[in-house]
Structure formats: C-alpha cells, structure tokens
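Components:
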Amino acid sequence: MPDDAPGESSAFARLDPRIQQFLWREGWTELRAAQERAIGPILDTDHDVIIAAATASGKTEAAFLPALTRLLHSREPRLIIYLSPLKALINDQFGRLDRLCEQLELPVWPWHGDISASVKQRFWRNPHGVLLITPESMEAMFCNRGGALAGALARTEILVVDELHAFIGSERGRQLQSLLHRAQALAGRRLPRVGLSATLGDMTLAAEFLRPGEAVQVELIEERSHGAELRVLVKGYLEPKVSATAVGPDDDDEPITPGQIAAHLFGVLRGSNNLVFPNSRREVERYTHLLREHCQAAGIANEFWPHHGSLSREVREDTEFALKRRESGAPAATAICTNTLELGIDIGAVKCVAQIGPAPTVASLRQRLGRSGRRAGEPAILRGYVNEEALDQRSGLASRLRLRTVRLIAQIELMLTGWCEPPAPRGLFLSTLIQQVLSLTVERGGVLAGEAYALLCRGERPAGRADGKPVEGPFGAVSPAVFAKLLRALGAREVLMQDPSGLLLPGRAGERMVNHYSFYAAFADQEEFRVENAGRLLGTLPVDNLLRVDQRILFAGRTWRVIAIEMERKAIEVSAEKGGAPPRFDGGGGRSHRRVHQQMRELLAGNAQPAYLDADARAILAEGRDTYRRLDLDRQWLVRDGSAVHLFTWLGDDANEALALLLAGRGWHADNDGLGVLVELGARDADALAKDVMSLGDATAGDMASALAQSKNLAQSKNLAREKWDGLLDPELLADNFVSRFLDLEAARQWAAEARAAASGSVSSGGVVQ
DNA sequence: GACCTGCTGCGGCATG
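Structure:
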C-alpha cells in the first residue's frame, strides 16, 4: 500500500480507512512505537504477540486497531474476545472502544457479573464485534453455554488478554491458560493470542505463559519506558523506644514516625495529584486520616483519598473520580492506596509516587512508579520513606541490620539497573485442575479420562503437525500417574463418577459444586483464623501463613506460641511466650526473590552512598553496615541470637521455607524469617545444628521432595490446603502440590552443600558467632 | 505484619 500522505507511517495506512478517519478526528498525530510495530503481525499473521509497555501507554489500541481492521475486512460476522482481570478495566475499555466501534458499526459487549442478563441474551442472538469478559464469566460460558460458545468461537478472529503479568503464577492464571486452550479446542482451530503486559524482567517467560511449549514463535513487542528523567529521594525516620517499664502489656502506644512522615507528605504533595503506597490497608487508613487532619488544620479542602480492596465500589470510585477530574481543572487529589491502583485503571497522570517502607517487589515498585512522569518534559518522581526503631540492647537482628531501609534501597538500585522479578509460573495447580476437569465434563456432557488428560495436560500432536513433540496443555507438569491419582481421589469423594462406558461425569458432590455460581472463580475467598488466648479473642490472621503447633508467632505486638489449631472452628489457640524482642525479620510482605536478598547483602557489605538518601537514611544504613561487619556476615552464616540461631542464607523465600521444613524434619523448630532461617536450639547446641544443615547438601531434590512429603512435619502444618479445592486432595497429592508451588528444594540443597564446602576449610565451629 | 481479583440460571412477581 502506498505511503504518500506526509507525516504518516505505512503501518497507519494499513488500518481500515474508517479507523484512520476516526483517529484523525480524535486528533491523533502519530502512532506510538508499540502501536506501529503491532499492526503488521496482528494484521497479516496468526502469530501470537505480546505487547509490553507501561500502564496506559496505548497497548489496548496497539492490539485493537489492527484486530478491528481484520474484522472489517471479513465478509462474515467475526468476533474479538478480550479477557481482563478486572471488571473496572472492562468498564474503562468499553467507554474507550464503544465510541470507535459505533463508527465502525460493530457492537461492543461488556460482560461480567454486574452486566444485566438482557444484554447477555442479545449477544447470543448474533455473537460478533468485541466481547470484553472476565475469566470467570468465560468459565461460566463453558459450563452453561457449551454449544452456543462453540459457535461464537468458530467466528473468533483473535483472543486478547489484558494485564497478562497480573495472571502469571496464580491459580487464576492457570485457569486463564486452560480457558485459552479449551477455546481453541472448541473452535477446532488455532486461535491467535495477543497478550498486553507491563514490561517484565524476562519476557520469554511471559511468552511461555501465553503459548506453553511454543514460546519461541511468540512475537515480542516491548517498549521500555525511557526518556523520562527519574528523580528519587529516600528519607529515614527513627521511632524512639518507649522504656519497657512504662508500658503495660495492653498499651497500644501510637508510633510517632507516621505523624512525621505524614507532615512531610502534606508539605510536598498538596496542590498536585500523587499516589502514596503504604503497603497495607491499615496503614492506608492511618495515613489518610493523618493527611486529612493536616488539610483541616490548614483550612483547605481535602485532597487525600483512600483506595483499597476492603472499601466499597462507591468509595473507590470517588477516589478514582477525584484523581481523574484534575484533568479538567478541579482541585488536586492524592490517593493513599494498596496495589488496587497498580493495575491499569484509568486515573490520569500523577506527579509523584510515594512509597512508605519497602515495596512488595521490584516489579511492583516499577509498576507504581510508571504512573508518574507521563507528561512530556516532566520527570518521574519517587519519594521513599522508611521508619526504623531506635536501637537498644533488646533490639533484634532485623532492626540492627536495618533491613527495612536496606530492602527499599536494594529495590531502588535493582529498579535503576532495569531488573525486576521474572514471573514464576511453576507448580502443579491441582486445585485448578480439579475445577477444569469438572468444567470439561459439564461442557461436553461427559469426557473420557484419556481425552481429559490429552487436552488439559499433554496430548499427541494432531496429524499433519508431526514435529514429534506432544502438545503441551496448561497442566503439562502433571504426569499420567498423578492425574490418575487425582481422578481416584475425586471419585472417592463423589466429585466425579464414571458411567459404564468409562465416561467421567460429575458425581453427587461435583453436581453441587458446578451448580453454584461460586464454581467459576479459581481462587478462594479470603479466609481468616480467629486467634484466641484463654477464651479471649486477639484478632484474626489470614490462613495463608504456614502454621504449626509450637510455632512462635508475633501478634498484636506480642510473641505467642501456637498451642492448638482447630480447623473446624477456624481458630488458633495461643499462649503467651516470654522472652525478649521478637526475633523476626521484617520484609515488605509477600515472597521475596533471591536477587533482592543478594542486593541487600551487597549493600550491607559495601561502602557506596546512594546520592538519593537524606542524612537520616544515610545514618540508618551506616548502622546496618556496622552490624553486618561486627557479625562478620561476609563469612559467617550461622549467628547466635539468645536461645535461637539465625542461618543467613540470603536465599529467596521459597528456598528458605524449604530449608526450614527440612530442618523441622530433623526435629528442629525452624522457620523462614526472610533473609534466612531462624532455628530455636532447645536442648541441643549450635554445632549439632551446623552438622545437620551441612548434611542436607547430600540429598537430591527428588529424594528431598518425597522425604518431605512423607514427613510428619508437613502433615503437622495443618494448613497446606491453600488453594480453593485443595481440600479434595488426599494428603500425598496435597504435599506434592504444595512442594511444587511454594518450595525451592534445589536451592536449599545447593546452599547446604556450599555451606559444607566452606566450613570444611576454615570454620570448625560451623561459623558460630555471638 | 502484605495485597488483589471474581460469580449463573431461573422462577416468581410487578409493570407497561
């Protein structure tokens, strides 16, 4: 096609004329680089494509402009299916797409739980145009409208997945992969997939997620955000210690550093739009309250708005609206939020992002910062705040190493080098496999075990595609033996039954599951344990904490020992534990990657002074380095701390948790504490522990996994069942599933082997320091 | 002491 219009790209010229006209009228002067690059592959080929760029950089248009052109070129009615993790995003996209599609005379169908049944009925009369849908609603279509869905999929041109990175590594992600795979099977032909994603550390892993087993042919279109200048400032704060004698056990003294941080935030944020991330809903409430008080005291209208998952839709929309309306000259607004504002909900540009304490991950920090500096010529601004306790004799190692501050600095350093955590999609995901097998039996009115295995796990490549490799399904890591064991377990629980011809059908319990709308979501509702002491309720604790009897936990500001776990009542009985400061490392929450811990170690071991630290943050870092050197942590990996021992592994959480469980298998009370493993010595000594640790270097990962699965310690951890239908697994499958998903045994073994190699040289004491 | 996400079909009744 000729490119004769000045200032226009040849790619633009390839869009349907009606789309070109719309863009001219909208005042578009040029296409973004990713949009330009996406047009060819999506228009000409059935290749899969990943478009990776920062939030709201026009990724959706990059996918839809060529995809809609394809629709317009077809004489038959055709369909684009767009899958989104959020209802709010579907509503946003509907608003943006509907105006364009009206011009093109193509219907756009928003589809999720809040959309009325009448709209949905109209769609089925003539399924064409653009369908914007959640994975859960798609699952419901497979269950309830198998026949009609097959017709719609036969017309489907392309599958678009938004916020791909938000799916990777979760049950919901595995469900999505299964839905893409089943859609293709139902359509009877290959359906091209387009993933829209934030830039991830390793895009080939995202490609592997989008098209398992065939990642090499996925086209990667990555637009790294550069150009915008980045300004960083990290401020440190010290929380004074209240003297021990002045505090009764139930006193709940308000810390003073949040007030200081809020005062500074008020000074620098008022008058502009910003985002503040304090990491938890409780802290969101705390800072919102403090900042609103500042507005009142200053006699100005409120500029600070909360946003998190426990707030109602209406309250959250108020906040989103306050941020958006700034564009039209309304008063400034700053949202204090959790990661609810990390995904692509449209809130306009913000001036500055404030991070209080370490971020959960480097990837998340990068996502958050991507909201700032979006207007040409404006810098992206990150303001970090960290508070630490003043040190005294009772301070724990985490405080003395200043890990909160060190973690945030390490995250910033890694972000500046361009690194972030790669997605970690490993795991059997047997809970989600249960859902998909059941859903498949309903979709097809019964399915043979072999068919189900071939579709969901691994099957022969159809004739004509004889490259020797089997087709990899979404549950490719599940072996035939594990699948058979799973079917037997489901049969025993009447989730599945087999008719005389061998056809698998829902059993009595399975019928109940699939006939309730709660079946469609792959992830479980948040469950909480009541935490009780002598009949008194202390509060609630999320179930996704690995708990076992005798474990020490920190709760309501005190240290407790778990006495009993009552699964039926969802209650934990604890008794007060005497002893000094709680021996707990404090992270940003969530699971931490090994690279972050290594960066923290490099920071502690080194002398470099990042230019973005204020004087107090520099002093705090210096204290951490002082502790690191006094403990000789460059060489020592085993450090006494009162009656306990810290094993400094500097591994990721998956490996630390594996190591802790392996040591528990040898009779030690061991827990992952972030940077390593905390072990209580009890009657034994540190040399015995060092010997046990080093002996762990011998086992193969396979040996260790089965040993671990058999060990009574794993059975003692009564809440291995963390995924929605884990309760239907027998103990062996449950342990396999848990190990596959949450433990890195090989890294733990390697560390133990290295510790032994190092010790055989110089450290006869096993590296004991006090 | 993280955080987040999602949900059908149908019967019964009232209203236009």
